[in-house]
Amino acid sequence: MSDEFIAYIGDYKFHDAVIENIENEENNLTVILKSIEEKIFSIQFLNVINVNANRPIGMMLYSLSEMREEDTKYRKFVFTNWEDEDDAFLEVIAKEYIYETNNE
Fold first, then answer.
1. Residue 41 to residue 14: CA distance in whole angstroms
2. CA nearest 98: which of 40, 60, 41?
3. Band of the pLDDT at 102, cuts 50, 70, 90?
4. Which of the chain's termini has less CB crowding within 10 Å, N or C?
């Protein structure tokens, strides 16, 4: 089944974080975020095959969800916008991700 929820990604810093920048290099995409505590952190997506976005820079996040993509080894990663009425969004289809947390 497509778009089947797998899990939330990351720790508490994703909730209320703001997307500061997006860096695209070859088949990899790095999303730079700023937490509510003003700490910069990032998540990198590897082997990206699709990015669907509308004005994601500046978007405040409610969560980051991992969804199953039908009949593939890829996953859909959905950055959920905190503001329901805002049309900003970011979705990434990739094989895997790297998120290294530093809970200082």
1. 9
2. 41
3. low
4. C
- Looking at the predicted structure, is the pLDDT value of residue 104 above 90? no
Q: What is the pLDDT of residues 35-58, one digit of tens each?
A: 999 999 999 999 999 999 999 999
* Residue 12 main-chain phi, psi, to 5 deg: -60, -25
Q: Is the pLDDT of residue 100 over 80?
A: no
Q: CB-side exposure of 61: number of CA atoms within 13 Å? A: 28
For residue 34, the 8-state DSSP code is: E
In the chain, alpha helices (H): none
At 82, the amino acid letter reads: W
Three-state DSSP class for residue 14: helix
R_g over Cα of the chain: 13
101 φ/ψ angles, rounded to the nearest 5 degrees: -95, 145
Q: Does the structure show a pLDDT above 80 at 89? A: yes
CB 46 within 8 A of CB 38: no
Distance in angstroms (rounded) separating the CA atoms of residues 58 and 61: 9
